Structures are given as C-alpha cells and as structure tokens.
Amino acid sequence: MTAPALTDPSAGTRPPRPYQHYVYAYPHKTAYRPLEPAPRLADLWTGEGRQALSLYAHIPFCEVRCGFCNLFTRIGAPGDLTRRYLDALERQAVAVREALGDGEPVRFANAAFGGGTPTFLEAGELARLCDIAERHMGADLRAIPLSVEASPATATADRLAVLAERGTTRLSLGVQSFVEAEARAAVRPQRRADVEAALARVREAGIPVLNIDLIYGIDGQTAASWRLSLDAALAWRPEEIYLYPLYVRPLTGLGRRRAGAAPEAADREWDEQRLRRYREGRDHLLAHGYEQVSMRMFRRADAPPQGPDDYACQTDGMIGLGCGARSYTSTLHYSFDYAVGMSEVRSLIDAYTVTEDFSRAVHGRAVDGDEARRRHLLQSLLQAEGLPVADYRRRFGSGPYDDFPAELATLAGRGWLAEPDDRDSGRLRLTAEGLAHSDAIGPDFFSPAVRAAMAAYEAK
Ligand code: SF4
Fold first, then answer.
1. 176: Cβ below 6 Å to ligand 1?
2. Ligand 1 centroid to 339 CA: how many Å?
3. Taking the CB of residue 379, how many other CB atoms lie within 10 A of it?
4. Is the whole-model pTM more than 0.90?
5. How far is the CA of 247 from the centre of ligand 1 (A)?
6. What is the pLDDT of residues 198-227, one digit of tens each?
7. What is the pLDDT of residues 283-339, one digit of tens each?
8. In the CATH hierarchy, which fold is given to the domain comprising 369-456?
9. 93 CA → ligand 1 middle, Å
10. N or C, fewer C-beta in 10 Å, the chain?
11. b vs e for 144-169, b when ≥16 Cβ sit within 10 Å of the residue's Cβ?
C-alpha cells in the first residue's frame, strides 16, 4: 500500500485539510532508505559536537495494540524476548559509545525512554535499561531530565519506584480518554478506575512532572464527553497535558476497519469535529492555568522547571538505541528499517535481537543544508514561542524570508502567521489559528525530495 498523499488535491480552491501530517521529526522515517554502502558510526561522528547530546531508548512492546497507533511496537514479548532485546540494546550501546571515541568528552543533556511502552519491562529490566544508559553510554541520569512513557496498566508501584530512584523527571501516561466507551472505540479498552489508580501511583512515586495524553476525534465523543476527560485529567493537576487529534492511518487497527475509505464529505465533517474539540480543549486548558507550548502540548503555568536542559532539538545530535530509535548527526539521520504491520514489526525486532555488529548506520537519510533549514524552521515555527529570526540567520547566513518567501506568504495570506515588525529580527510566530492548523502547515515545508520519498514509501 502506498502512503497517503501529503496535500489535499483541492488545495488552492479551499483551505487545506487541517489534519495531514504530525511533524514531530523531519525528515519523517518513511523518507529513510537503506544506506549503501553503510557508513561506519565512527566516521559519522567524527567532528560532531558531543557536549549536549540527547539519548533515546526505544522499547517496542505493549500489552495491547491501540487502534490508532502506528508506532513501531508489538503486542507482548513471548519467552525471554525482553531479555534478548536488552542484550542487543546493550551490544548496540557498547558499539555506539566506542564509535563516539574518547577524543572529546561525551555529555548527554537529556534522556528519554519511549516505545512502545517502556514500562512493559519489569522493574528489574528497567533498572538494567538505566544501567545501560549510565554505564555504557555515560549518561548521568540523575543529573539530567529523563522522560519515560507508560500505560496505566504497566505503571505499577515497583516499576515507578525504580524509575523515580534512577532520576526520572517526567512520566507520560497514555490515558487517551477517561470515558470507557471512547477507550473501547479507540481500541484501547480500559476501566476508568484503573486509570485513576495508575495516576495515583505516579503521584505517590514523586516523579516531578506528570504528563497526561488525551485524544479527540474518537467515534462517539461529544463536547460533553470531551469535557469530562479534560476535567478528569485536570483533577490531577498534571504539569503537562498533550491533546492529540485522532488520526486513522494505514495498517493500524482503526485503519483496517476503515478500509474502503470514508467519502470526502464525511472526512470534512470529521475535520470540523476535530477542530471544534481542539478549540474547546485548548480554551478549557488555557482557562485553567495552562500555557500552550505547541498545537498538542500544554504546560501548567506554575509547574516547577524540569532542571537543566540545554539540548536544542534544532541543532544538537541524538543517539538512539533500540530497533526503532533514530540517531541524528548534523548530516545524516539514521535508524533501522521501519514497519507498522504486526508481522513485519515482529520480524524486525527478531532481526535486531540477533544483530552482533552495530558499528554501522544501515538505514537513513542525508540532511544537507537545504533540509537542515527546513528542519530548523519546522521545529521552531510549530512551537507557540515561534522562530527567533536572528538564531536562524546566525546559523544559516540567510533569513527565513530569503529561503521560504512563497511558503511564508501563503501562511500570512491565510491569517496563520503573525509576522514580525522587522524581518531581520524578532520572532516568526503562528497565530492561534495557525497553531490549530500545525498539521497542515508542516507538510508545506517538506522538500520535493522528501515528499517524493514519503509518497513512494510502501507501508508494511
Ligand atoms: S499508543 Fe502507546 S500503548 Fe498504544 S499501542 Fe501505541 S505505543 Fe502501545
């Protein structure tokens, strides 16, 4: 199956569809390809900054497969699969650390365990994961922000105790909805009482930042039921709340149910419904003391700072460990092969667990000067605080209006861009409506080559 088109064919005659592509990383993994010949990590990292790296570990296991999820994960881990996975992750850590060398000190500015569901691992396995990050990679987990994703059922007291003790500063709980019928409709059945009990355990563990993920646009969700979930989340006064629009993507549980495709009119209606829920959610959180950080992210205005974090995602390098983790140097983004369908995911995980040689990057995409500009602009502009023009100019020697005149004029014409008084300084910021349409804005800045690669990607 081919990935969906990135732009609405009717673009130009009416406003673009608001929910096209969530740009959490650019270029997207579907634009990665096998690297031939596969470069040695030691060569790739020569000359790269290593004073403020980010460390990410990917744990590709979940107890259920949520209907909306297109992440690289599988249900369950038969036999000793989690042990074999951690064995491979340790071998990879050793190889990567060796490739970084000792010529210059290596320092991690932050760390994250994501998935999948990292807390699918048992308490002892989580301790081992922290050991790998500390002993093999040299990350000082207790001194830097450490974020971990969890599901309600796996956020058990013993696991949370290990994570808190090892320095976790942020625990993100994927709740999605406090309404049981909606959770079932999203193919993530869970009882509200179990969710509330998990939230109580997270608070008891004393991890400083609690994030709650909620989803809008679920079948059967109304303004009233959405408000119920928002209020149930607010009752915990979480330091962060993420509001995600529901997407139905190829090869996911909901995608398979919808095969046959809804007519255009139904999709337009669903877009409108999601925009309404977004605005209701945003306004409700703003009225309850939260600040908007991006289209999805809201932070409690009086939440304590998370400690030192001098990692700048636009520029600094990332080391990813695990079969779905990305790594970034200034010129190459790389990972392993990627899949969403169950049997492909299982075989890729199996292949990872038997890999002995982790000394090369095997799958990825080169990031040249043009792509680096696009990435910098996307990762700044889609944040509420916007893009400091001087930073962009300092890094690239030209301004965003020099590099993206047509795209920025289109945004301004739609009322989505608050232009700075001075185009050589100040900040480029999205308006409130611009932020609401972040998922329509992002694809406009993809390069033709990345678009073509994403369109040609065969989902598997
Ligand atoms: S949404 Fe989270 S818990 Fe659900 S299947 Fe995806 S990774 Fe697992």
1. no
2. 14
3. 19
4. yes
5. 14
6. 999 999 999 999 999 999 999 899 999 999
7. 999 999 999 999 999 999 999 876 555 556 656 799 999 999 999 999 999 999 988
8. Arc Repressor Mutant, subunit A (1.10.10)
9. 25
10. N
11. bbbbbbbbbbbbeeebbbbbbebbbb
